[in-house]
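Sanity check. The docking grid for adenosine monophosphate depends on where the pocket ends up, so I'm generating a full predicted complex first rather than guessing from homology. Inputs follow.
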Amino acid sequence: MRVPLTTRDFLDRAELVYGDRIGVVDEPNQPAPSLGELTYREVARRGRALQAGLDELGVGEGERIAVVSHNAGRLLECLLALPSSGRVVVPVNFRLSTEEVEYIVGHSGARMVLVDPELEPALKRVEAEHRFTTGEEYEQLLRFDTEPVPWSEPDEDATATINYTSGTTARPKGVQMTHRNEWVNAVVFGMHMQIGDRDVYLHTLPMFHCNGWGLPYATAGLGARQVVLRKVDGAEILRRVEQHGVTVMAGAPAVWNAVLDAAAEWDGEVPGRDRVRIIVAGAPPPSKTIARVEEELGWEFNQIYGLTETAPLLTVNRPRAEYDELDPQERARRLSRAGVAALGTRLRTSDSGEVLARGNTVLAGYWQNPDASAEALEGGWFHTGDGGTIDDGGYLTISDRKKDVIITGGENVSSIEVEDVVFSHPAVAEVAVIGVPDDRWGEMVTALVVVAEGRQVTAEEIVAHCRGRIAGYKIPKRVEFRDELARTATGKIQKFKLRESFWADADREI
Ligand code: AMP
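Predicted complex below; grid placement will be based on this.
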């Protein structure tokens, strides 16, 4: 028998098996009325009411619905309920500028946009046929008195979500995730992390980023409680861990550095010792961070590696039984590797050292971009753009990045996009944007600028020029002036040369 694997399965099962349980605890501090505590039955009921409301508006299956929101219960509902009805959810990074959001809404062809009330003033200009804030307006949309029209032909190969990600092009690309991609990711992820109905998951990861790594589906399907956190803050994370008995969290190394800082100031025993397990990815975690998480917090450290394009799960590095007897430093060293291929995934490296992957979590393609899709999937393997090595035990270590992308605080920044904006300043003759090592953010966006002849410009003026044109986290934190930039004989800027002086003391180039 073949039954389509659709994301609907997760909320359906949550409702059936865990209907009476508090499934979602919404963020109390938000501009919209908080949903408070919802049982999984209520989440499912509200999801159907949302679908019925969209039926009434004529926004039916196959339609894209963009949601620009901080983490919130309503965004979580959209992720769970919209694809279930054959609609496509497009979660948008809430830090993007108006112009960037406009591009995504236009490119995805979204007829409907849902906007966080806090972002509404800044995003007023973003147009769509239907536009609602995710506060009172969203509540008005819900229709509890009618049953929604069911998805006419559930199809596991249909697109469930489109996640826009900054890559090597000036414009973000829409990663098209099928129901099957999301299903396999959630099930394999849940299995590797042994998620179960005793777990309490705190959303320390932005849900827009790769659909919160697919964990909203995994945790719902397995009956774990989900606690929504709107803004990442070290001390607040510790307070929620204590208050809600949190057991699982996920995030980039920068999040755990913030938690470690907060723990140093924490009054009394840090909560969650021997209970919490964290899942880390987005950038290579320094082994010092790993040892500190295990020793100072007593939390279990797990690493995964993947991309938005791979749903994200490609590898897993869990503390194995064999690691129990190791001294903390050796344990940390082993856990600092990206991990070993997850069940059903195959990995190899190309002749040039690029990491290639095959598996059921790999994207169907980039939305309306067949050239980029063909390039990424050339030869039947997904090209990650990361450089790495695989050791005898099958463990992958990421060593550098082949693609021209900077990762700061876990978010991708396209160098080209930033270069375009800096270059549009009239006093800039040439610019190269690179990532330089930074303890807090992993990498710091840095612009190397050659000033046009007869012109003058300060670093502050360049930063001011970028403001409003691109999202804040993409704006160079550091601007340095150069007489010239290293180039090849054919005139191509040699980024690796420009990076060399900054990365000389680091043991890897990422
Ligand atoms: P994104 O698509 O925004 O999630 O970014 C994916 C990129 O993050 C990958 O291509 C890697 O460069 C980086 N990344 C993710 N996980 C890890 C990891 N465990 N170690 C090193 N880099 C990582």
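Relevant for the grid: The chain is about 30% helix and 25% strand.
Also worth noting: Residues 165, 210, 281-284, 303, 305, 307-308, 312, 338, 384-386, 398, 401, 407, 412 surround adenosine monophosphate (CB under 6 Å).
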